[in-house]
């Protein structure tokens, strides 16, 4: 029974990785710390995480910025379920985690958009950001740059891969 459940869980993760084009690889604690460090201390408004995975980064954002509303969107059912369970175990009143496609998420009131996607997904995301983001919105990306955009700042995290983090200020 336990073996069947484990195989079903792996299959479900695999199916959704095929569907979204990426596995639910979590941002590591070191990269997460570096990402939080790049954001201004005085933030308010809405932080949107595109593909919130297992919830580690979303929870860290919600704790670090208690005056912000943090909204995560995740399609893969198992990571999303785990993220909801961890939220039940340690509630964060300013965090909402939706099982939904971020391509349909409204971004017009975002102060910050956070993501850790893949190169092809960044390219596909760009028209949505161009259509919806207000000038001045911050976009923070783990590892993958937005093609054609000039970052406001970059940082190399102290992790095994020396991951680069990109911070953009959106302008039309
Ligand atoms: C590399 S993981 C990063 C997870 C999390 N953001 C983190 O940094 O720990 C990317 C996540 O985006 C999710 N994803 C990809 N495309 C999506 C879409 N269109 N809508 C919602 N989630 C999506 C994947 O299922 C995956 O969990």
Task: Name the features.
alpha/beta, Rossmann fold, binds S-adenosylmethionine, seven-stranded mixed β-sheet, 172 residues
In words, what does this structure look like?
With 172 residues, the chain is of the alpha/beta class. It has one domain: Rossmann fold. The protein has helices at 2-20, 29-38, 56-64, 77-89, 119-132, and strands at 45-50, 68-74, 95-99, 110-115, 138-142, 153-156, 164-169. The N and C termini lie far apart (54 Å). The mean pLDDT is 97. The structure holds S-adenosylmethionine (SAM). The site of S-adenosylmethionine has 24 residues, from helix 1, helix 3 and strand 2.
Can you describe this structure in just a few lines?
The chain has helices at residues 2-20, 29-38, 56-64, 77-89, 119-132; strands spanning 45-50, 68-74, 95-99, 110-115, 138-142, 153-156, 164-169. The chain has one domain (25-169): Vaccinia Virus protein VP39 (Rossmann fold, 3-Layer(aba) Sandwich). The chain is built from five helices and seven strands.
- Helical content (DSSP H or I, runs of 4+): 25-40%
Structural class: alpha/beta
Number of structurally distinct domains: 1
Portion of residues in beta strands equals 15-25%
By CATH, the topology is Rossmann fold
Strand order across the largest sheet: 3-2-1-4-5-7-6
Spell out which ligands are present. S-adenosylmethionine
CATH superfamily: Vaccinia Virus protein VP39
**Which descriptor suits the 3D outline?**
globular
Q: How many β-strands, per DSSP?
A: 7
Which architecture does the CATH hierarchy give at level 2?
Answer: 3-Layer(aba) Sandwich
Q: Radius of gyration over alpha carbons?
A: 16 Å
Q: Averaged pLDDT, please?
A: 97
The CATH class turns out to be Alpha Beta
Low-confidence blocks of residues: none
The end-to-end span amounts to 54 Å
């Amino acid at each position: 029974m336990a073996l069947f459940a484990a195989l079903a869980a792996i299959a479900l993760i695999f199916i959704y990785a095929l569907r979204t084009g990426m596995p639910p690889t979590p941002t590591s604690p070191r990269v997460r710390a570096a990402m939080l460090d790049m954001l201004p201390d005085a933030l308010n408004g809405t932080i949107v995480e595109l593909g919130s995975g297992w919830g580690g980064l979303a929870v860290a954002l919600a704790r670090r910025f208690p005056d912000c509303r943090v909204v995560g969107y995740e399609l893969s059912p198992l990571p999303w379920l785990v993220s909801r369970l961890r939220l039940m175990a340690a509630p964060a009143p300013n965090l909402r985690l939706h099982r939904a496609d971020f391509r349909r998420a409204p971004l017009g009131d975002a102060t910050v958009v956070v993501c850790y996607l893949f190169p092809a997904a960044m390219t596909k995301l760009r028209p949505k950001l161009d259509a919806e983001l207000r000038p001045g919105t911050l976009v923070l990306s783990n590892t993958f740059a937005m093609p054609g955009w000039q970052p406001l700042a970059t940082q190399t995290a102290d992790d095994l891969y020396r991951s680069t983090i990109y911070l953009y200020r959106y302008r039309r």
